[in-house]
UniProtKB/TrEMBL annotation:
It comes from Mediterraneibacter gnavus (strain CC55_001C). [4Fe-4S] cluster 2 binds at C208, C212, C215. Residues 194-424 form the Radical SAM core domain. Its EC number is 2.8.4.3. Its cofactor is [4Fe-4S] cluster. The gene is miaB. InterPro entries: Elp3/MiaA/NifB-like_rSAM (IPR006638), Methylthiotransferase (IPR005839), Methylthiotransferase_CS (IPR020612), Methylthiotransferase_N (IPR013848), Methylthiotransferase_N_sf (IPR038135), MiaB_methiolase (IPR006463), rSAM (IPR007197), rSAM_horseshoe (IPR023404). Keywords: 4Fe-4S, Cytoplasm, Iron, Iron-sulfur, Metal-binding, S-adenosyl-L-methionine, Transferase, tRNA processing. It is found in: Cytoplasm. Binds 2 [4Fe-4S] clusters. One cluster is coordinated with 3 cysteines and an exchangeable S-adenosyl-L-methionine. This is tRNA-2-methylthio-N(6)-dimethylallyladenosine synthase. Monomer. PANTHER family: CDK5 REGULATORY SUBUNIT-ASSOCIATED PROTEIN 1 (PTHR43020), MITOCHONDRIAL TRNA METHYLTHIOTRANSFERASE CDK5RAP1 (PTHR43020:SF2). [4Fe-4S] cluster 1 binds at C62, C98, C132. The keyword Magnesium does not apply.
Length: 494
């Protein structure tokens, strides 16, 4: 759903655009010009076909990509495309790709093979590719050579140009490729479409300057840039006016927010400003880097009425020796110290993490250190990954890559430990009453709805569809490992 006020404003702007004039140079006006241009082209095609044109955006990877896909969707709807549930039925299919691990790339090539078969039967279909994978020159070379049926390729830095690129493709019959190496540009005020009416991701910064030695993100997402706090507040205020009660502040390393601003500001200060927004009930954020997690932030989390009791704090490894090779810039002891401080300041906090197994040179002793951290912290949940070699990163040229069967064995042992601890940690809330934001009708049983607690756990309980988007109090009756079954005790807002 496009924000109502925003739709009206953009509608007004579009009707005033004179396509006889050359495209304006400044943003976002330039994109509005191309939205209008594309809209007319789409309208003509739809009239010829006797039905609206449809689109489907498939998103791979992280929350950042999910938010980018909402932006793509907002623009496509403004242009006149209608969303289609089935990828294979859509007139315009877009893959928003991820490249953080090699298997993410393989998945995209697999999907593309299938789409090629669909396109052969349906030649007017358009296929667009964007996201992190497109920032890798070898990928684009491969697509140009072996995937000629792709229509549009663009990257992470020029996603704001989407309307212009679509218009260019609709006017020509050739593959359109536009990849930027980096940018310091942040274009505000483009349309976006939210997946949920009551919660939304909000980008607070783009890019990453950390260069963890295994990670490709700084190369494909570019240097760190923070959005102006005024723009962030304005966006959240307008989301709240449109029914949003929960925001997820997004950045690769939110704890270093504000360092690059003309008037520097800390993430903790930004959180305090966001807290003041009336009508906003919950604030989440991710991802936090342990090296930048300040006492100021811990204090703000402890005092806040709105910041959710959940911190995602990727540890990656428990071995100080490996952490150094990973260029993480903290030690095992520093990390455990942080965890202690947070648990003392916010006693009911839920902690989650990311862990990589099999980084080059990881020994059994290093792995035992990781298990030790897992046992000491007792995470509510952990995303565990097998190290994936990413060409172009410093770790890719390290010798001593760990043999596959050893990595697999460590991965299985880690997963077992993580799962048994998290089942114990999750169950401690049994019989308590928790406030939850109802997110959906249950997929398997439509007499149940599903709500999310402040600590990110889910609970299913009997309830009607009209509870979706509302905050309610629920008694947690039975813990089912990673979620609860419960009973509503009170509705907070109607
Ligand atoms: N191999 C495996 N996992 C990786 N991650 C990032 N790069 C790699 C890689 N090359 C993981 C990290 C990060 C998460 C988003 O993905 O754990 O926190
Ligand atoms: Fe990658 Fe490290 Fe930046 Fe996270 S902080 S995106 S792991 S380089």
């Amino acid at each position: 759903m496009l924000e109502k006020k925003q739709t009206k404003k953009i509608e007004e702007i579009l009707t005033e655009i004179d396509l006889e004039q050359p495209a304006p140079a400044e943003e976002p006006m330039r994109q509005y010009y191309f939205m209008e241009k594309a809209r007319r082209l789409v309208k003509t095609q739809a009239e010829t076909l006797g039905r609206p044109l449809t689109f489907h955006v498939t998103t791979f990877g992280c929350q950042m990509n999910a938010r980018d896909s909402e932006k793509l969707t907002g623009i496509l709807e403004q242009i006149g495309y209608v969303e289609e549930e089935e990828e294979n039925q859509a007139d315009f299919v877009i893959y928003n790709t991820c490249t953080v691990r090699e298997n993410a790339n393989q998945k995209v090539y697999g999907h593309l093979g299938q789409l090629n078969r669909v396109k052969k039967k349906n030649p007017h279909m358009l296929i667009g590719l964007c996201g992190c994978m497109m920032q890798e020159p070898e990928v684009v070379e491969k697509l140009k050579k072996s995937y000629r049926f792709v229509d549009l390729i663009f990257g992470t830095h020029n996603i704001f140009k989407f309307a212009e690129l679509v218009a260019t493709r609709l006017e020509s019959d050739r593959m359109v490729i536009d990849i930027w190496k980096d940018t310091d540009k942040i274009v505000e005020d483009l349309p976006s479409e939210r997946k949920f009416s009551f919660k939304s991701g909000v980008n607070i910064m783009f890019g990453c300057n950390n260069f963890c030695s295994y990670c490709i993100v700084p190369y494909v997402r570019g240097r760190e840039r923070s959005r102006n706090p005024k723009d962030i507040i304005r966006e959240i205020e307008s989301l709240v006016a449109d029914g949003v009660v929960e925001v997820m502040l997004l950045g690769q390393n939110v704890n270093s927010y504000g360092k690059t601003l003309e008037e520097p500001m800390t993430f903790a200060q930004l959180l305090q400003e966001i807290e003041k927004i009336e009508g906003l009930e919950r604030i989440r954020f991710m991802t936090s880097h342990p090296k930048d997690l300040s006492d100021e932030l811990i204090e703000v989390m402890a005092q806040s009425q709105k910041i959710c009791k959940h911190l995602h704090l990727p540890v990656q490894s428990g071995s100080t020796r490996i952490l150094e090779k990973m260029n993480r810039r903290y030690t095992k002891e520093h990390y455990l110290g942080l965890v202690e401080k947070i648990k003392a300041a916010v006693p009911d906090i839920s902690l989650t993490t990311d862990i990589i197994v099999g980084f080059p040179g990881e020994t059994e002793e290093d792995f035992q250190e990781t298990l030790d951290v897992v046992r000491k912290v007792r995470y509510d949940s952990a995303f565990t990954f097998i190290y994936s070699k990413r060409t172009g990163t410093p770790a890719a040229v390290l010798e001593e890559q760990v043999p596959e069967e050893i990595v697999k064995d460590r991965f299985d042992r880690l997963l077992k430990e993580v799962q048994s601890i998290s089942a114990e940690v999750c169950s401690v809330h049994t019989k308590t009453v928790q406030r939850v934001l109802v997110e959906s009708v249950n997929d398997h049983d439509d007499s149940l709805v599903t709500g999310r607690m402040s600590n990110n756990l889910l609970v299913h309980f009997p309830g009607e569809k009209d509870l979706v988007g509302k905050l309610v109090d629920v008694r947690l009756d039975t813990c089912k490992g990673f979620y609860y079954l419960g009973e509503m005790v009170a509705s907070i807002r109607v």
